[in-house]
Amino acid sequence: MQLAERTGQYKTINASVVYEGQIEDIDFITGNIIRGKKISDTVVGYVAYIEFLNGFSKTFYMSKEEVEAHASKYSQSYRKGYGVWKDNFDAMALKTVTKLLISKYGIMSIEMESSSLARALAADQAIMESEDETYTYADNPQDTISVEVQEPPQYARTINVNDIPPAEEPPAASIPAAEPPEEAPRTAQQGNEAESQPEECPF
Asked: Could you tell me the CA-to-CA distances from 140 to 15, 76, 82, 147 in Å, in that order?
C-alpha cells in the first residue's frame, strides 16, 4: 500500500473485514457493493477499495470461503495447519484482496515508483531465482519455475574420455658422457719439481 501511495496516482486505498449484514448485494455489471447494516460479529468476507486522482475507483470483494480456497491453493503451510495464514488469517486475507485488486486494476507505469510496486507484487512470498526476476514460491512448490536446458548444437561431437590415447613420454636424450681430459705427459723436469715441493696442508 505504501508503494502504491508513492506513485502519486492514488487518492484512497483501503481494505476492511466485512461482517454479516454489511453487504446486501454486489452489482455484477459495475462491481459496486450495495451496503447494509452489521447484524453480528461473524466475519463473512474481505473487501479492498482503490480510488485514483482521475476519479476512477474499484472495489474488490472476496467471501471468507473464497479466501480460504485461495489460501488452500497457494499456501502449503495453510493446508498443513500452521503458518501466518493460521496465526493471523484476517491480516493475510486483507493483504490478499488488496494485492489482487492492485495487481488487476492498479496503475503500473514505467515510472520508478510503479515499477517498484509491480516488482513487490510479483515477489510477495517468493524467492528470486536469477537476475531475470523469475520467482519460486517456496510455500507452494507447484508454482516453482522450471528452467529448460538447451540442446547441444547439431555439429557437436561427444568424446569418450576412454578413447583418448595416453600421452607418450618423450624418449630420453642420448647424450654421451663427457670423458675426462687426458693428462699431458710430464717431462722429467716437471716430475722432479712436483716431488720436491712440499704437500700443502688441507686445513
From this structure: 25, 5, 14, 17
For residue range 118-146, list pLDDT tens digits in order. Answer: 666 666 655 545 554 555 555 555 544 33
pLDDT score at 146: 38
Are the C-beta atoms of residues 134 and 123 closer than 8 Å to each other? no
Q: Looking at the whole model, is its pTM more than 0.90?
A: no
H-run or E-run covering 3:
helix 2-6
d(CA 77, CA 80): 5
Mean pLDDT over each residue of the chain, to the nearest integer: 74
CB within 8 A of 123, min separation 6: which ones?
Answer: 135
- Count of CB atoms situated within 10 Å of the CB of 103: 14
d(CA 124, CA 95): 10
| Beta pairing class for 23-26 and 33-35 | antiparallel
Place of cell 474499484: 58
